[in-house]
Automatic annotation (TrEMBL):
Keyword tags: Nucleotidyltransferase, RNA-directed DNA polymerase, Transferase
Protein species of origin: Plakobranchus ocellatus
PANTHER family per the UniProt record, alphabetical: DOMAIN-CONTAINING PROTEIN, PUTATIVE-RELATED, ENDONUCLEASE_EXONUCLEASE_PHOSPHATASE DOMAIN-CONTAINING PROTEIN
The name this protein goes by in its record: RNA-directed DNA polymerase from mobile element jockey
GO molecular function: RNA-directed DNA polymerase activity
UniProt-listed InterPro entries: Endo/exonu/phosph_ase_sf, Endo/exonuclease/phosphatase
Pfam families registered for this protein in UniProt: Exo_endo_phos_2
All residue ranges annotated as the Endonuclease/exonuclease/phosphatase domain in the record: 64-177
């Protein structure tokens, strides 16, 4: 098994930090964070096998932003997600391509991994920021689905607004615009809850 690998690259006006899991040989499908030069941020050295990168960003308040990629058909568990979340200072936002399906965030179907994530979100009182818009376009079938998520810790959720861009911009994922406005009142998705069997 290879040691954890990270990749740093510069763009005009920005810097980007790639982070891949211990078994990832190239950063092509790993998570990364892009920071505008001049923004005060501090990278978090995550101890995880997940494809994740995180940093604390100092805006009007300090917020932790974590980019997470869950590959299709991965067997990531609640435990691995919990171990990741424990490393994130609050308040935090977890964003990324989760490759899971559930009506809780706008998809037309629910798979096993989607149910697992529903449980994890509900058990930890996290807030789903998605509005229900579709986030992925499958060119072979000309169909859409919602597999990209934004999840927030409760204290910051009401200050966030989420929207999917209408233009794919050359990708198969619609760009997500997440706006953080302190004290901005936003109708977050608080109607979702998971009822365990037997309740």
């Amino acid at each position: 098994m290879e040691a954890d690998r990270s990749f740093t690259q510069s763009f005009v006006g920005f810097s980007v930090k790639f982070a891949s899991s211990a078994t990832q040989k190239v950063p092509s499908s790993s998570s990364h964070n892009l920071h505008k030069n001049g923004t005060r941020f501090s990278e978090i050295d995550l101890k995880t096998g997940l494809h994740a990168a995180a940093a604390t960003i100092s805006l009007e308040k300090t917020v932790t932003i974590c980019s997470l990629y869950l590959p299709p058909n991965s067997t990531d568990s609640k435990l691995s997600l919990a171990e990741l979340i424990e490393q994130l200072p609050k308040p935090f936002l977890v964003l990324g391509d989760f490759n899971v399906h559930s009506p809780a965030w706008g998809d037309s179907c629910r798979d096993g991994r989607g149910r697992m994530l529903e449980e994890f979100i509900a058990e930890n009182d996290f807030i789903i920021l998605n509005s229900g818009e579709q986030t992925f376009f499958h060119s072979a079938y000309h169909s859409t689905s919602a597999i990209d998520l934004a999840v927030a810790s409760p204290s910051i959720a009401a200050e966030c607004s989420w929207a999917a861009h209408s233009d794919l911009c050359g990708s198969d994922h619609f760009p997500i615009v997440l706006t953080l406005t302190p004290h901005f009142k936003y109708n977050v998705n608080t109607s979702f809850y998971y009822k365990k069997k037997g309740d």
